[in-house]
TrEMBL record:
Gene3D superfamilies for the chain: Acid Proteases
Protein name: Acid protease
GO MF annotations, alphabetized: aspartic-type endopeptidase activity
Biological processes per GO annotation: proteolysis
PROSITE patterns: PEPTIDASE_A1 (PS51767)
Highest rank taxon of the organism: Eukaryota
UniProt-annotated catalytic positions: 158, 345
Disulfide bridge partners, by residue number: 171-178
Length: 455
């Protein structure tokens, strides 16, 4: 108990210290915790279409992870059109309380859906008064400082990609503009050094391209000179239109980096801020109405999980955080699964399963129904206990997270937070539907993932 208290104190001391420090060697600190905020993304889109956007993103990410060609924009657009056509069915319209025509598939302007789908990653935590009105919990950001003088940048945390970049002051987005963001370049930072090297990255949704630079970064009080990262001259509309994010911090394993540089936690460990390159996430949930999201570098924050439930699992050789999937159950009944692997991604909103598994899981959830679209509805008042087994432990998904963007509704049917995709292979895409219920930690040095029940 005393040890825990000490660790927690050290942790708070560090994170609240306004004066950043360069690493001392050997390291005197072990954990650095930074608050995570959720981003409000009010697209005004029907919940079914936002759900389909998430499925599209998952489909592209899963294809990339499997080394297969990503579905084309035409395919993604067709998916959206198809989903919209089902909303237009009178009873679906009634069930989802959709306003009368004009919102039909012919006038959808699907281009903007696809572009919005470009929004790259995850949504983490609050620490602010921002409230996502429908509780969709789709993107998680942290605030850090870059350059000289130091200025704040809000960046998305994405465990499913390998590059760190922020918007460049030359960002033109082919003349369309890069939004109301904070930009970085030699004009804004006297310490920025251009390395004459380009980078370009595609996400499940969206893209960013630009050049690689060295500059000063301060994150959670840790100051690193000559940190190598990207400034993006060209970003997809979703990033340009993002209400908050000025960039993205990729926290996959180094092999996914298109810039050919190690991710931030490895650099931080190398300069001596902590002993092991570990990143741990406590993702917040809008329905909790508390600001409890955080990301911890260098270890696990003992205040945020139940230690009796902690498991550590070897990850595969993939650049993604992929671990063996050992099973699933609903209300204590085992579900027969075809899949054997799980890709853990804070940047994915849903828990997305290959079709056969999605059908098998929903078949055991009382009242769940497959929609015409192939996706599922679950009664909004569900109390079903869906658990996923990793490392010998069953981790329960909080019933409220089984619902996508329910906004806390308890009557009628809600769209399931467990999505289905036609994906060759045997892998689940485990996003925030699951990750919000657990403490999730990735260890770059041991190539392991740790999971515990979040508290
Ligand atoms: C940087 O500053 C120079 C000199 O004031 C100016 O000509 C140039 O347009 C600026 N570049 C950007 C990207 O703002
Ligand atoms: C741009 O963002 C700043 C702070 O993030 C905000 O105060 C300002 O109103 C925004 N401007 C526009 C035009 O949206
Ligand atoms: C950029 O930073 C890296 C360390 O991250 C260093 O090795 C390299 O020499 C730096 N390059 C320049 C041009 O400062
Ligand atoms: C960055 O790295 C270069 C090359 O190693 C070095 O000359 C320079 O002093 C470093 N800059 C800082 C601020 O440490
Ligand atoms: C910017 O990205 C778009 C696609 O997102 C691409 O069509 C365009 O060629 C890119 N422009 C530059 C200058 O890289
Ligand atoms: C995990 O990997 C380590 C070496 O990387 C190995 O010693 C250990 O047996 C592995 N554990 C399991 C459960 O496979
Ligand atoms: C959910 O609501 C339905 C009626 O809409 C009711 O029949 C059912 O018992 C409720 N389930 C739970 C778990 O409260
Ligand atoms: C089960 O997974 C295998 C790959 O391991 C795949 O070939 C097969 O099509 C899957 N079956 C179903 C029903 O999805």
């Amino acid at each position: 108990m005393q040890l825990l208290t000490l660790i927690s104190l050290a942790l708070f001391a560090l994170s609240s210290d306004a004066r950043p420090v360069r690493a001392r060697q050997p390291s005197t600190s072990h954990l650095v915790t930074v608050p995570v905020r959720r981003v409000q993304r009010d697209t005004g889109l029907h919940v079914e279409l936002r759900h389909e956007q998430q499925i599209n993103r998952a489909q592209r990410l899963a294809a990339r992870a499997a080394g297969l060609p990503a579905p084309s924009l035409d395919e993604l657009r067709a998916n959206i059109e198809r989903r919209a056509s089902f909303i237009d069915q009178p009873e679906t319209r009634k069930r989802f309380n959709i306003p009368p025509p004009g919102f039909g598939s012919t006038s959808l302007g699907t281009e903007s859906f696809i572009q919005d789908d470009d929004t790259a990653a995850p949504t983490i935590a609050q620490f602010s008064s921002e409230v996502d009105p429908d509780g969709a919990d789709t993107t998680f950001v942290v605030t850090l400082q870059l350059g000289t003088p130091r200025r704040n940048f809000d960046v998305i945390l994405d465990s499913g990609s390998g590059d760190f970049w922020v918007d460049s002051d030359q960002c033109s987005n082919n003349g369309a503009g890069c939004g109301n963001h904070t930009f970085l370049g030699p004009n804004e930072s006297s310490s920025l050094v251009r390395l004459n090297k380009g980078f370009s990255i595609e996400y499940g949704s969206g893209s960013a391209a630009g050049e690689v630079v060295n500059d000063t970064i301060v994150l959670g009080g840790m100051l690193i000179d000559n940190f190598t990262f990207g400034v993006a001259h060209n970003i997809s509309d979703s990033f340009a239109n993002d209400p908050l994010a000025d960039g993205l911090m990729g926290l996959s394993k180094p092999s996914l980096s298109t810039q050919g540089v190690p991710p931030a936690p490895i650099v931080m460990r190398d300069v001596g801020f902590f002993h092991q390159a570990i990143v741990s996430y406590r993702l917040p949930r809008s329905l909790d109405h508390v600001n409890n999201g955080e990301v911890t570098f260098g270890g696990l924050d003992p205040a945020k999980f139940d230690p009796s439930t902690l498991v550590t699992i070897n990850s595969t050789d993939s650049g993604f955080w992929i671990i063996p999937l050992e099973g699933a159950s609903v209300n204590g009944n085992a579900v027969t699964l075809n899949s054997t692997q799980a890709l853990m991604d804070t940047g994915t909103t849903l828990l997305v399963l290959p079709t056969a598994d999605a059908i098998a899981v929903h078949a055991q959830i009382p009242g769940a129904q497959q929609q015409q679209s192939g996706q599922f509805n679950i009664p909004c008042n569900t109390t079903a206990s869906v658990s996923v087994r990793f490392g010998g432990n069953d981790f329960e998904i909080s019933p409220e997270d089984l619902l996508f963007a329910s906004g806390g509704r308890t009557t009628g049917d809600c769209t399931s937070g467990i999505g289905s995709f036609n994906q060759p292979g045997n892998q689940w895409l485990v996003g925030d539907t699951f990750l919000k219920s657990v403490y999730f930690s990735t260890n770059f040095d041991e190539n392991t993932v740790s999971l515990a029940k979040a508290v």
